[in-house]
Amino acid sequence: MTANASSTIALVPGALAGAWVYRRELTPVGGTSTPALTAVSVLGGALGAGLLLTLPTASFSAAVPWLLAFATVVLAFGRRVSRALSTAPGGSATAGMSARALLITQFVLAVYGGYFGGAIGIMMLAVWSIGLGLDTAAGNPMRIAQVAAVYLSATALFLVASDALGTPPILTAMLVGGVAGGFAGAHLARRLPARFLRGTILTLAVTMTALYFLRGREAG
Question: Are the beta carbons of 37 and 97 closer than 8 angstroms?
């Protein structure tokens, strides 16, 4: 719990820095507005943080590698599946998740983000890819903004209800790294070709999936 809370707190400034860099490139996702999507992310993140403070994490941690593996596969093939569904007999070129379905799904993802947070941004991109046919590069600015909203609300609870502040040197080092990485990463991502950015994010997703499985194997 302390590790999850500390990492979430440390990533907030970096996520906010990235969202600031992308502030002029934020466009609505699906049929819902950005304020509505952000409000759902804030509520879900707070609820997830509350669950982390009250429930054991062992069983959920065991499921994370499989969730991440599924998200990685969806991220890799989601747009193709979405296009195939929209052009299939009975489908529509504009088929996709409704605004209500998108908000419900975002809330579930935000709860996960506040509770555990591992690769939450990758999972968001995977859902938007298969549910909306959204390109990874096009969805990246909103992904960063929504991750920031999830982490911000979770952090508000962790700061007053967890012992994450018990190791100031470690937390400070993580905060510095988070800000530097969030700011530099967002600037770099804006300059990368869309194809290269998609490849980079997918490579990170595959790497994180492998590392989560290895960690679970070592723990077992």
Answer: no
Which domain, by its residues, includes 145? 2-219
Task: Give the total residue count for the chain.
Answer: 220
- Is the Cα torsion angle 72, 216, 111, 141 positive or negative in sign? negative
Amino acid of residue 125: L
Q: State pTM to two decimals.
A: 0.76
Condensed to tens digits (0 to 9), the pLDDT of residues 29-81 reads: 888 899 999 999 999 999 998 988 887 766 666 777 887 787 778 777 766 76
The pLDDT of residue 180 is above 50: yes
Domain tally, the chain? 1
Residue indicated by tokens 């859902």: 127
Rg over alpha carbons for the chain, rounded to the nearest Å, is 17
pLDDT digits (tens, 9 = 90+) for 107-126: 999 998 888 777 788 888 88
Residues 81, 130: contact at Cβ < 8 Å? yes
Q: Tens digits of per-residue pLDDT, 153-163? A: 999 998 888 77
What amino acid is encoded at 151 in this protein? Answer: Y
